[in-house]
Amino acid sequence: MQGVTILGNNSAVPAFDRHPTAQVLTVRDHLYLIDCGEGTQIQIIRYKIRRSKIHRIFISHLHGDHYFGLIGLINSMGLLGRIQPLHVHGPAPLWEILQLQLREADTHLPFDLQFHPLPDEGFVAEDAHSTVHCFRTNHRIACWGFLFAEKGATRADIAAGRSPAGRTYAFCADTKYDPELAEKVKGVDWMYHETTYLDDLRANAEARYHSTTRQAADIALRAGAGHLLIGHFSSKYADLGPFLEEASEVFPNTLLALEGTTYLFK
Amino acid sequence: MQGVTILGNNSAVPAFDRHPTAQVLTVRDHLYLIDCGEGTQIQIIRYKIRRSKIHRIFISHLHGDHYFGLIGLINSMGLLGRIQPLHVHGPAPLWEILQLQLREADTHLPFDLQFHPLPDEGFVAEDAHSTVHCFRTNHRIACWGFLFAEKGATRADIAAGRSPAGRTYAFCADTKYDPELAEKVKGVDWMYHETTYLDDLRANAEARYHSTTRQAADIALRAGAGHLLIGHFSSKYADLGPFLEEASEVFPNTLLALEGTTYLFK
């Protein structure tokens, strides 16, 4: 698990050239796309993500800023001749939405699109070098976070002098402040937690099922996380500096999720 | 009817910073959005289109590069507090697609979203200063073109010294070469016709229900159009110069549909 690249760090309405949520997690030679807001396929081109290496896509919930770009990405993968299977993990109704749009366009994908509805919590997927589990967050509609865990070093790794540290990454999706979340990702190496608002707007955050800077940092502290990445910034903020300042006061190992930046899990 | 602003001029897969189909027609103080590919709301911001003035949206067909941006635009209009009604005219199944996505997000729009399924052909809408009719084009799935006609000068216009010329604009959507199309838009002032390919790829155009440069120009010539706008360029072409050259040889009053450019109907 080398790191995560941010493709979108804004909340609902695009602004200041910031885009809706999308991240790419690199696990050896596989790419996992986490959420896919409108325009993600353009961000993938802009930041030179190898689309063909995207092996699985995880969608946290059905608010548009987290999945409206999925059908376009899938459609383009088909037009560009993808043949390897693509696994999509998301809320069950997503499959109806995708199928309806593919059917009305009379689209026949040249690859196998495999949809896997998310369980309420627990095991989601396993590949050669990682496992993925999901957990529920506390949002206005059903919403899931994902915990990615790298497997330990294999015999081949040891022979080659590689030593993957068995790193873990938690994507905590959209959520209001909820200390129970910290229990679900206890001891994680890297954690992404939304900070839609600065801390003076706690009331807005509470009302809209979102979190503030200090709330996110508090969750990271309670979880004993190694690093905290913050994002999903409200379109009302042009300057992101105060987000970093406020969160860092509570949890020093905080980083802003900036678009086009890859955060290496060292 | 002042003119048309191009927001997207590319075919299916975005490339070379060109975007999927979207155009804004200005009719007095109303804006009509024609097609709405993914990312149209970003193009609307980039080119400073007054979103609140968009009164009607017309969707030609359910291939994604013509409508995947619609749900995101509608969603953002709601988040930004729009209150005036919005009329969407499109193929009947579009309403199911929109409703499903709004329902799963538990979205309650603050404005009245009125959907009007397109008839096979004929009358679509009438406002104070214009009428809109639709016609079928010859594409792989059901596809409609739109004919916008400005009404003549009113008493108020004459008193104010304005003299709208009763201009007409035909949006011919996606279509293979079809001389019958010329009959449907006979004598139109401005015509948009797709040119997905240069003329050496007539076989590709035929197979994929698209048109070439010379074919589009031939339709404009047969229709006796005043001006021809060409667009929907394939992602295989970085340079658009040859499109203008080839089409102009057949129909001299041809212009390239360039993103961010407004073509004034003088």
The overall pLDDT average of chain A reads 95
Overall 3D form of chain A: globular
Radius of gyration of chain A from CA coordinates: 18 Å
- Return the CATH architecture of chain A: 4-Layer Sandwich
| Number of H- or I-type helical stretches of chain A | 8
Name the assembly state: homodimer
How would you portray this structure in words?
2 copies of one chain form a homodimer. With 266 residues, chain A is an alpha/beta fold. Chain A has 8 helices and 14 strands. In chain A, the strands form 2 sheets. Chain A has a 7-stranded mixed β-sheet with strand order 6-5-4-3-2-1-14. The longest helix of chain A has 12 residues, at 93-104. The A-B interface holds A 12-15, 38-39, 41-42, 45, 62-65, 68-69, 71-72, 75-76, 79-80, 91, 93-94, 96-97, 100-101, 104-106, 140-141 and B 12-15, 38-39, 41-42, 45, 62-64, 68-69, 71-72, 75-76, 79-80, 91, 93-94, 96-97, 100-101, 104-106, 140-141.
